[in-house]
Amino acid sequence: MRFNTGGGSAKSPELRSSEFAPVEAGERVITTRVVAQQAKRASKEHWDEILDGLYDRTIDGLDSEIANYVEEGLALGMEPKDILFDSLIPALTEVGHLFEEGSYFVPEMLLSARAMNAGMEVLRPLIAGSGGLDLGRIVIGTVRGDVHNIGKNLCCTMLEGAGFDVIDLGVNTEPEAFVAAVEEHAPQIVGISALLTTAAPMIGTTIEAVQVAGLRDKVQILVGGAAVSSATCAYYGADAYAGDAVTAVTKTKEMLGINS
Asked: What separation in angstroms does the CA of 106 have from each of 43, 226, 239?
């Protein structure tokens, strides 16, 4: 407010009553509520932008951008499980649908899986022990004599993305390592992979080792890989066969009686 500094006697400035009128308590409450609502809307919009960004980039396989989105969401107070179940899992589910309809092929699935893994690298330590991956537990590995891991890794990512706790034993896995993992982790399912036809008999050896250890009735066994078929599954006494990562998720849910 400016004062009259011209000649003549000084005059008191005219004050408009509205300038200095006290704010009523009710008006303060309304103003505070409006500000809070606006902030909440802005925060929700920002959260949605992050979830949408993660969803799109996972489907597109842009793994270099995923971690930054996840960390930004966490910095805003988003729960790790919300990021996983509201964005990453739906994205990988959509990738599975695209694969089933023939729009996506294995290379695209691998890129999306890599993007998913980039997000899980940040989220996994935060979710561990919180019940975030609680659909069931799976021990999975490639049999002894086979060092191929692309298909097995893709299965691990798809299963984890679907909400399963996955224990990955890696490649060239001894039958005894499968047994030890069942004893330690108490999974509902054991996944056995073989790509080489020369390594396929190790599926039977592994299942036999589980049987001898007295654990066969405690787990179901899912087999897969290029060297495996439904006939192989029946021959070695496995419970189910999956020809690809998407089917592995479907079969696993069926084996555990999960409807989704």
From this structure: 37, 13, 25
Query: Both 137 and 255 in a single domain?
Result: yes
Compute the distance between CA of residue 95 and CA of residue 105 in angstroms, rounded to an integer: 10
Instruction: Give the count of beta carbons closer than 10 Å to the beta carbon of residue 118.
Output: 21
Domain at 83, CATH number: 1.10.1240.10
- Share in percent of the chain as helix, strand, coil (round to 5): 60, 10, 30
Q: How far apart are CA 102 and CA 17, in angstroms?
A: 73
Total domains present in the chain = 2
**Do residues 123 and 202 both lie within one domain?**
no
Which pLDDT tens digit goes with each residue over 74-116? 999 999 988 988 999 899 889 988 988 999 998 998 899 899 9
Q: What's this model's pTM, rounded to 2 decimal places? A: 0.70
